[in-house]
Amino acid sequence: MAGGRTEVEHLDVLVVGAGISGIGAARYLKEHHPGKRFAVLEARAAVGGTWDLFRYPGVRSDSDLHTFGYEFKPWRDHQAIADADRILAYLREAVEENGLGPHIRYHHRVLGAEWSSERARWLVEIERTDTGERLRLSAGWLFSASGYYRYDEGFTPRFEGRERFAGTVVHPQHWPRDLDYADGKVAVIGSGATAVTLVPAMAREAGHVTMVQRTPTYIMPVPRGDALADRLRRVFGDERGHRMARRKNIWKSALVWRFCRRFPKAARGLIRRVTVAQLPAGYPVDEHFSPPYDPWDQRLCAAPDGDFFRAVRSGRASVVTDRIASFTEKGLLLESGREVEADVVVTATGLNLRLFGGVELTVDGAPVRLPDTVAYKGMMLSGVPNLAFAVGYTNTSWTLKVGLLCEHFCRLLEHMDARGYDICVPEPSDPGMPTRPLLDFAAGYVRRSVAELPRQGDRAPWLTSTGYTEDVALLRADRVADPELRFARAAAPVRTEASA
């Protein structure tokens, strides 16, 4: 590909993905670098990413939109924990208000990208998903905003006897538009955020919904609205009120997380008391709602206005904690011998991780093996020039980190422009630095794929921060130049500029 003679369009920055991260990156680029040529490539036919893809009942955020939304665009809706259609409308407004539409190219899937140090650019191979046509683009920088899971498939473990089941089996990531479960029996396999969302939503129409979980999850009732945020906007206006509500929720989230991590026994006890209060007297709370791990070893699940518990109290939903032995013609046979009958089985069994959308990367002809790389400031990879990526937080709102990463990326471009650099590559000064997984998180979907992901180091700037306050210092307040970040001009030796 790199040796091709055909002239291709050249861009300064190529953003991959038009979800919440890609739209944010495009807005920051347009705001801070209006003279740069950039495009956002989206494999699907619409913006929105997750929020346009997922169509299962009740799909919503599990973070408040004052922090999950953008810093530059106030969240004005009364729902703080918001339904997908409201989030999607918000994202479309962000595209329209910032004039980003002309920069977005739909039906463009990136297949591979080859870096040439001599030319200081990426040559990117693309497939048109609507026509099958192949084309190429050249870019000075790649910015991956495609998240870290596969959009084309979810994770479903192998279940013995599935072919015997006479009903319908669906995965939330591929929800049929015409699925009819009214007055029927539904079994939801799983206990994560998707299952906790599906159960109360489906219980409104189904005859009964049973959540079949192998391991309990911490579930906390949270207000769907944010009365204080609404008052702040009324008193101080949209812009200032949004900033105040955002700051309030950042600190609230950080305090909850730190309390859970520092005092896990107390946090476990508090969550148990809240759960007991949400359920009927005598309910077996310890059997179904007492995980074997501490709070925030995995993400806590939110139940807006306690909707999950309300569905259980009403009798329209129930929880079973057991292992599935096999499918039967009528439903699920559990290892205890119990059978859960179902007309519809929903496999809310998780996601498959795939960083950079599965794009194959090479640097000067050598393939990039992600497990051999270390993440620099949680946004670049060691030994890989002019590549940035956006991966948000796992313990609070995803977009909080993405905004800081986009700001830092724009500052980095400004630094390079001012000094005439074409190439930027992170390189650890200590090749023997101890490393651990980039996503240091106990969730099953992370554990299944951790060996395929980049690593993180044990010290800054190779240690990936999990806190917003720390990242404000690292990405917003700290200078761009760094002893372990190296710059060069095309066809020139790479050199350090730590003193700039």
Automatic annotation (TrEMBL):
<protein>
    <submittedName>
        <fullName>NAD(P)/FAD-dependent oxidoreductase</fullName>
    </submittedName>
</protein>
<comment type="similarity">
    <text>Belongs to the FAD-binding monooxygenase family.</text>
</comment>
<dbReference type="InterPro" id="IPR051820">
    <property type="entry name" value="FAD-binding_MO"/>
</dbReference>
<dbReference type="InterPro" id="IPR020946">
    <property type="entry name" value="Flavin_mOase-like"/>
</dbReference>
<keyword id="KW-0274">FAD</keyword>
<keyword id="KW-0503">Monooxygenase</keyword>
<dbReference type="Pfam" id="PF13450">
    <property type="entry name" value="NAD_binding_8"/>
</dbReference>
<dbReference type="Pfam" id="PF00743">
    <property type="entry name" value="FMO-like"/>
</dbReference>
<dbReference type="InterPro" id="IPR036188">
    <property type="entry name" value="FAD/NAD-bd_sf"/>
</dbReference>
<keyword id="KW-0285">Flavoprotein</keyword>
<keyword id="KW-0560">Oxidoreductase</keyword>
